[in-house]
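Quick start: read one record
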Amino acid sequence: MSSSARPGVPATSVPRTLARVALALVLLGAGIGHLTVARQEFTAQVPPWLPVPADAVVLVSGVVEIVLGVALLVLRRHRAAVGWVVAAFFVAVFPGNVSQYLTRTDAFGLDTDRVRAVRLLFQPLLVVWALWSTGAWRAWRRARRER
């Protein structure tokens, strides 16, 4: 682990930093896609039981992804908290992925039940990626030990 040159800014390693920046880029790309070229594809993932217009969900979630991507890049002093928020976001959108599987909705090349089911297995990896790359899990463990 490298030490931080600025007081109050958590230290981080190069692999964590690269993983955090990559996650930020994924979120920024997805968020921009929600608002532009992939809007219809994302709309297909909104569960039909949700009592909100699907297009509104897509637009709001796109803005949230952009905000989270930027936060991962710029909120250094709040990196762990941002990691928890990003992880919670991935948990919150998981029902859309489950819905896409259950309703057999094709989107993003997910055109078979098997492919849609495999995709569900990757959602927990996104949660782990957010927690690890931001040091959120490590900060939580450290805080528990200090109590």
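The longest helix spans residues 79-102.
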